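Entry type: protein chain
Record version: 2
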Amino acid sequence: MLRVMLEDFRSAIRGLLKRRGFTTGAILTLAMGIGTNSAVFSVVNAVLLSDLPYKDPSRLVIIWNDYGKTGQSLPRVSVPDFIDYQEQAQTFEGFAAAIENVDTITGDGQSQHVDKSMVTPSFFALLGVNMQLGRNFLDEEAFGGPRIVILSHRLWQSRFGGRRDLVGQSIQMNGIPYTVVGVLPEWFKWYCPPEVRVKDAEVWVPLPLDPTIYSRTSNNVTVLGRLRPGVTIAEAQQDMDAVAARLRAERIEHKTSDIQIRVVPLHHDVVRSTRPVLVVLLGAVLLILLIACANIGNLMLARALANEKEFAIRAALGAGRLRIASQVLAESLLIAVASGAAGLLLSVWLVRIALWLGPARLPRPQNVSIDGCVIAFSLAICLLAPIVFGLAPALQTSRINLVEALKYGGRTGGSRRHRLRKILVAVEIALSLILLAGTGLMIRTMAGLERTQLGFEPENVLTFAVSLPWSSYGDFGPDRPVSFFRQLEARISALPGVEAAGGAAQLPLTPGSYQTGYAYDEESEQRLATLDADWSWVSPGYFNAIRARLISGRVFMEADDLDALPVAIVDDVMARKVWPGLDPIGQRVKDEGEDRRWKTVVGVIEHIPSSSLTSVTREQIYIAHRQKANGGMHMAVRTHNSPAPLIQAISRELQQMDGRLALYDVRPLTDCVSNAMATARYCLILIGSLGAAALLLAVVGVYGVMAYCVAQRTSEYGIRMALGAAHADLLRSSVGEGAKLISIGIVIGLAGAMALTPAMSGLLFGVEPADPLTLAVVSVVLGVAGLSACYLPALRASRVDPLKALGRQ
């Protein structure tokens, strides 16, 4: 048996080397299918299938608060609620809380902004993280203990040169000494859903858990939980439903909020926004693989039909059907193995491109690699692909009619074998249409995003953030931060080339908006928690800096300070919703935060998307920064030309005001818009590339079948022309045969597209999955491309010389 197999492989190798054009085309076609599948699977494996790098990651959950009447959903809770969770929940081994902050490292060189996370001492223990140097926080250090800090590995290396004696020493943050008690391991990275404000920080400090200094209505901490061994998500959810019921019954702040507590697996939440993209891409590359297999199957069938005499002679000499079929399968397996090797090399290159193009929030991109799982996946494709594209040719060659095959000039191309080739081409057309439909939908989505009204003009605007240390500014009352940002805005505005400057709590199109309830009259004040809006505090120059579109009233002025009556500006969404048919100017609003004073509406601006272009349009309320002191601001600076040269000048102004401070998050405002479109652009590039590849393969398949059919009917065309048939008649006949094939494929593809494109609904904006216009356009594109592939063989057939054609008989 082994000897027979070796003979088949030797014969297959000789045959493939003789037909190098066929062999090269087949290997390249299948390598494209295997390479794209291996590349996408490597990303899927690293992001969706691999566990998070924590202890028993399947037991880690994140807690969401849902407010049923408002539809608001937050991965953040209040500190008093967190304490209640710890005391009342029964199915959890433990909880941990974290909150984002920022700080500036001073001393030992230039001031450096760092992201800071304040966490409970249980945070690292809950994740199963041991320090590389030093120790974790102690429980008693969460209640007003000494100022201590744990450093990330990268900050320890970059700022402090990896000094092992740093543990126990002091570092300066905003001029205040903090004792370093630990250094995190190099592998540690904090993974969280996009909505969570807590970043993978560079410094970590204890979170004080004093419930008296936190409001129960201020949802500002992210909560993690670890389930007890054997506890399911459903059991934990039932437990937290009971906790939520007690909060609604016992806590006055929750009596009208209809609070629901949702338990979500951490890994599920981390990859939630990425999963639809990767699933769609995995489906798309599988379609490419099927198209490639159909294309090679057609090539193998053509070869089998061309070599029928050879197979017939072998059958006449006693070769059985299985032996003849095994020779064809041997060729298929060799092609698959060579294609697999080429495909793996291609996948390395494709992975690099995919990561380079990928959205910034792709989880764990550093883990994407061609590892053992990816190689095993590719090997599985190599074993299955020959069955897909080689089985039909093998079966066909084993069913040879010896009498017909051995006739002089005989044609065994019976209709059954030609029909199989045409079926494969129709399948290629159908699969290609599905991919082209996905490409068309992403083009429509990008066009919809481009047409979205931004409500501001992002060009020539530089943005950056400044955070004031509360210990130096907040302790001196609200006047100090207000005075600082007033002076900073004035200094920047005076720089050459600056048109306007201003600050806001949050820039447009950036995640993490501040949402809270609001009231607009005495009746709505009774249901304050049932209305929800995005709130932001802005300085007088902000709206001019981003060129927000003022609809009525005025923007904030310098006179809107702490001594003036509280004022607010609302967007047109709120104006239409709350005061339909009335003039919003002069109306009143208030929030459920700390400052519950009524604020008079003095202006209405056009809605500005706060978090994303595709999120729910929530009403927006702006309050004057001069009337609400805050130590953190995102500044926007509009310039007459490119703003990049101003960065150094602005940094010098800031250093002159306070040498402990540093700019951070410096970028043009256009980046916010670009990032908002990143996922749609990523999908368009990748799915569009796959659609173009599918179209090319389909056209090649149509051309191959039509060229073969024309070659088989050369004698027939010669006879028809000798009997007086016109060139146009032959051209029409040949193209018509191809058009029928293409039409069948398009009809099947339309049905497949309508069934499969709903899987893309989470990626679309402004277009339905079964959009008639998109389906019509891609059908026309595919039809024109297919008919073009039919035209050249048909043109050659119409120009055949009757004498030469008849001479072949």
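Comment: The longest strand covers residues 92-106.
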